[in-house]
Every structure is written in C-alpha cells, then in structure tokens.
From TrEMBL:
Its EC number is 4.1.1.36, 6.3.2.5. This is Coenzyme A biosynthesis bifunctional protein CoaBC. It comes from Goodfellowiella coeruleoviolacea. It holds the Pfam family DFP. Residues 1-216 are annotated as: Phosphopantothenoylcysteine decarboxylase.
Length: 430
C-alpha cells in the first residue's frame, strides 16, 4: 500500500468529474471514510460517527461483514446519511471499491482488529474496506482494539511497524477493561479522542510521525487549587485541555508520557499515557520533580497558583462569622524556575505563559520577558481573555525559543498547537 499521502484539491476535482460515488459535500465538509472492524469495540464507532458528522464532516461508513454482526447497517446509515456496503461486487458500475478511497480526505478505521491490521499490512483486498485502503492516497488512521495478548503478539507488532513505515498512523491503544473480566492494553480509545486525532490529521497530515520514540516526556496540565477552608479554594480557569492534548499527541508520536494532572474539566485520559492526579501547587511540584528526574522533556502547561493561603480554616467560613480573619497569602514556589535550575545535560524544559497585556507591554513582550527570567528552552505564549486559551477547544499564540526564534502559532485545535511544539522539541533534540 502507498498510504498516508494527502489528497490534492485539483486531483479530487478531477476524480469527482470522472464519477461521483460519495454524495458531493460542500467544500467546507471534509470527506471522511469510517471503516469499522468486527470487534466488540464497534459500538464506540457509533459515537465517533456522531461526533464527526455533527462537527461538519461528510462521513461514509465502510464496515466489514463481521462488524455488521455487532452493529446493524441501518444504524450507520441513519447516523451518516449514506448507504452502507461491505462487498466489492455491490454497485459495480460505480466502482465503489476504487472511488471511495480515491475521493476521501481521511480514512479512520475504528476499531481496527488484529485480523484487519494484518490484511491491511499485506495488501489484501477481499472486501470493500481493504480495497478502499489500497486505493487511498489520503491520511489513514487505524485505531487498534483487541485483547492484550493479540496486541503484544510479534505478528501484530510486525504488521503495525510495517504499516507505520508506509506512513499509516496506527494509534496507541488505551489500557483498561476489555471483554469479559480481562483488562489491559488493547482497549479502543474513546470517541472524543479519536475525533481529535482525526481533526488533527485533516489539518496536518504529517502531524503524527513516530519521531519521539524512545523519549520520556512529562507534561503538567490543569489548574491547581489552594484550599481556604473545606469548601472554598483559590483557583483559576484552566481546563487542562492543552496539557492533555500535548500528552496525547506526544504518546501518538511514540513518546513514553507521564501526565501530572491537577484539576481539569471532565477530560478523557489520553491513550497510552500514565496519569498522576494532584490538587495543590505543592503536590504538583513534588510530582513533577519526581517524574522529571528521569525525563528527557518536561512541559509545564499547568496553571500553577502563584499564591496560597498561609492558613487553611478547619471549618467552613460562614457569612454569620463576626469579623472573620483576613486571608493572608504567601507565594508558591516557582516550579518552572526550579526545573530549569536542576535540569540535567540534554534535558529540555518547556514553559507556558498565559498573558493579557497591559499599558506597559503587550502579550508578546511579556512572554519575551518571562522567557529571559525563566531560562527555559521553549516558551509557549498565549493571549488569554475573551475566549482565548482557557476553557476553549482551540488555541493560538507564539512559540519562543531561547535562541531568539519566534514562531507564530495560528488559531487551530489544541492538538495542532501540540504538534507545533513537538516539532520544535524534535528539532532541538536532534
């Protein structure tokens, strides 16, 4: 197979003129083929299909015959708005086994079973899905789902390596409950995570190379909370989405990733990532220092509280309390500065700066000053407020390097920003 090459707009136009098989979407609706393999995780493909269609993608579902034993064709047709076929001898005059792959902007196969991965690796084309994979010249994302023993079998590992060598993105599976009483690595990631990877590949087909293999990465994410009493705390608006995206993209690029997560929104743990939960700035500090001792790259994306109360009330402070004591604050340690001071030779330290600008300086000037103060290798500067950076799905900013290089990061998904950062880390590591 020659997979993973993006489809040019001119080529796509010529193919449509030759014979339109997929319903012609508007130019703003990318054409996505959702392949579904015959595993119990096929039920998750319905949620993935819903997320893709509701976010504006034109999706054609191509299941295997085995997949239809888990999910009926009517379900896929109702959710996608397109007919469902499985064989190469259906709609022969339209040559669907060629046209679907030719006209796709992205192919996602979820779940990709061990059998389906083997057939794709060896170029078999005995049904509509495998024939579609052979004709595709767009990015291809295979999302494995199988028992741990199957995932770890040498045959599967060889097939995955072969596909990756050809430019196919084979996602890292999650760990957790499988079928029956079994648990382990091989669980299909959640639909929201697969949809995020799909959006990333549509924006940047080259965003997930395996260039971080052998690299140990630590990422901090979310906002710390400093308790005032058993009910209240000092905190911030960080959702943790950017840190989770950084961890997710790094893992899919081959890194061994530990995510030190403070308080976050209800986010799905990234597949293939070890997660350590913390609450306060001091807890985060301790966890990051422990993990950084053996890390090649440390990314401080968490919003760490600058201050904490000197004293925490043992009981809830009530409105009826007469003359409550004022809240006295003390400064928290500067975790990023500590990491820079303690870094080992060759270790890369990345910081984040959420800035608003003021009468004295704009956001970028504040970021430059912070880079000089902290001494880290890279600093991502975000403008916050009015929907910027915190809580939103997208992000933008600048990537500042210690050598003076400044790279604007245009607005896009937080996974896209993560890909830009890991590109820079890879270049610095070479």
């Amino acid at each position: 197979m020659n997979l993973g090459q993006p489809v040019g707009a001119a080529d796509a136009g010529q193919r449509r003129a030759a014979g339109d098989v997929l319903a012609d979407p508007t130019p703003s609706r990318p054409r996505v083929v959702l392949g579904v393999g015959g595993g119990i995780a096929a039920f998750k493909s319905c949620e993935l299909l819903r997320r893709l269609t509701e976010s504006g993608h034109d999706v054609t579902v191509v299941p295997t015959e085995a997949a239809l034993r888990f999910i009926g064709a009517a379900t896929f047709e109702a959710l996608s708005g397109h007919p469902v076929r499985t064989g190469v001898f259906e709609d022969v005059p339209e040559v669907r086994h060629v046209r679907i792959g030719q006209e796709a902007d992205l192919i996602v196969v979820a779940p990709a079973t061990a059998d389906l991965i083997a057939r794709a690796a060896h170029g078999l084309a005995d049904d509509l899905l495998t024939a579609t994979l052979l004709t595709a010249r767009c990015p291809v994302l295979l999302v494995p789902a199988m028992h741990t023993e199957m995932w770890e079998h040498p045959a599967t590992r060889d097939n995955v390596a072969l596909l990756r060598s050809r430019g196919v993105v084979v996602a890292e599976p999650a760990s957790g409950r499988l079928t029956g009483v079994d648990t382990g690595k091989g669980r299909m990631p959640e639909a929201v995570e697969i949809a995020e990877l799909a959006r990333l590949l549509l924006a940047r087909p080259d965003a997930l190379p395996r260039d971080l293999t052998g690299t140990r990465v630590v990422v901090s994410a979310g906002g710390t909370r400093e308790p005032l009493d058993p009910v209240r705390y000092l905190g911030n608006r960080s959702s943790g989405r950017q840190g989770f995206a950084l961890a997710r993209v790094a893992a899919q690029r081959g890194a061994e990733v530990t995510l030190v997560a403070a308080h976050t929104a209800d986010l799905v743990h990234p597949a293939g990532v070890t997660v350590r939960r913390v609450g306060t700035a001091e807890e985060l500090r301790q966890a990051v220092h422990e993990e950084a001792a053996t890390a090649d790259v440390v990314v401080m994306a968490a919003a760490v509280a600058d201050f904490r109360p000197v004293d925490t009330a043992a009981h809830k402070i009530k409105k009826t309390d007469r003359d409550p004591d004022p809240v006295v604050l003390t400064r928290n340690p500067d975790v990023l500065a500590e990491l820079v001071a303690k870094r080992r030779p060759g270790q890369l330290i990345v910081g984040f700066a959420a800035e608003t600008g003021d009468p004295g300086a704009d956001v970028l000037e504040h970021g430059r000053a912070k880079l000089r103060r902290k001494g880290c290798d890279l600093l991502v500067v975000n403008a916050v407020g009015e929907g910027g950076a915190f809580e939103g799905e997208d992000n933008a900013g600048w990537l500042l390097a210690a050598d003076g290089t400044e790279t604007p990061i245009p607005r896009g998904s937080k996974a896209q920003l993560a890909a830009v950062l890991w590109d820079a880390v890879h270049l610095l590591s070479d």
